[in-house]
Specification:
Layout lengths: L5 E7 L2 E6 L11 E4 L2 H4 L8 E2 L2 H11 L1 E2 L3 E2 L6 E6 L6 E7 L10 E6 L2 E5 L4 H9 L9 H11 L1 E2 L2 E5 L14 H10 L4 E5 L5 E9 L2 E9 L5 E10 L12
Antiparallel strand pairs: 1-2, 2-3, 4-7, 5-6, 7-8, 8-9, 9-10, 11-12, 12-14, 13-14, 14-15, 15-16
Length: 248
Amino acid sequence: MPADGLVEHRQTQTYKTIYWGPTNEDGRSITELMEQPSIFRNDPYQKGWSPIPDAIRHWLCSELDEIDGNYAVNPLTTAMSQVSLPFYQNVRLIRLADGTWDRPDLAIYFLVWGRKLFRLNGMSTPIHELNHKRPIKLTEDTVLDYLRFFCHFVHGEKGPFLLAESMTQAFIPDTLEEQERTIVSDNVTPVSFNGMTPDDKYECSGIVMYGQSLFFAKFHVYPNGLIEMTEDEPIAGDLKVKVRMELS
């Protein structure tokens, strides 16, 4: 997020608050707020986020009110950002976080198409529902971004299926023991598109961190957005730390 929008630092309770964009005289009307920078430190889209226009912010507040009955959405305290996704047309990914929530590492995401909201809650259902209503546009140039997106937001019992491409990327645990860090660092590699299958699926492969395991995987990505893991080859198990991302 560009630093030239920084206009004020303020301490509220135990949260370090950074206000971005213009403020009114009392300093409360904000276009972007980031509470606890750790919320956004592990974020695969951090270079592409942009502020949400005020009118849309207020519409989101009226639509969402209190997420899960616990997380109030307030235009004065809730950080809201948006980013476009290359495999959708007229669909935006939005992110919400708020330092006044009792879970400072929680970020809540929605896909927005027109006035329809699809909550990304770790299940594949909202993604497939959108893909059915607003067909996805997969090409050889966009399929890897879609695979990263899908694995990031679809979780199993042990958490996300993180495509481990670099030791500096989002959500690679930074508390790995030295031996484990060496194993991970020796194996991480950019996810690759390997060509089309005879039945017109996109074949891709990469290194996956899931829970406390590391393994090589092959995927078939269907033109309609379905993803199938066709092979998995264990590299390491029982790592001392696991990939963590709070979506709900």
